[in-house]
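Open question from group meeting: does this chain pack into something compact, or does most of it stay loose? Before anyone orders reagents, we agreed to write out a predicted structure and look at it together. Recording both the input and the output here so the notebook holds the full record.
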Amino acid sequence: MSPIQIALLLLAVAGVWAVVELALTLRKTRTVVDSLDKTVSDLNNTLAEAQPVVAKLDGAVDELTPALAQVEPLLKSSKTAVDALTSNLVEVEAVVRDISEVTGSMAEASNAVSSVTDSAAGAVQKLFNKVKAPAADADRKLAAAAAEAEQPTERVLIGEAEDEAVDGADAAQKPAAKPAQYYTYTPAETSEESCDE
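Structure tokens returned:
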């Protein structure tokens, strides 16, 4: 074989290989084109379904146009209302300030009246304490006497011991009979005496 025949043979093999590759590429391209056709048809169907929705949206926008024309006057009137509310709030603030001043004055007057009544009540209390003091002392003394009467006591007859001592002495010098005297000791006094001894 000559080199030209080898080159022609190689060209023929390359041509066959190119044709096979071209066939495979065309087959893949056909598959892609078929899927693209399906996608386009689906898109057309979606657009066909969307057209009524778009028509409804157009009708809604047409209906909103007069409402949008009315929004501007509403905004102007709301600005006017806000301005009026602001001026009313300024007036309310002035009224509150005046009320605050009046209540402050009333509080000062109330404090003055309260101090006057407190001092008058203190004077009256002192007067009643001075009047009640003697009566309270008498009540305390009566209560102390009642408490003392309730406590148990010991009684010692002193007159008989003196009579026995006088018997040994001169009878002429004996004075007239003394009545018997009793001394009362409370338990506290007797315990103190026993401690002293």
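Observations to bring back to the group:
The chain is about 85% helix and 5% strand.
The longest helix spans residues 3-150.
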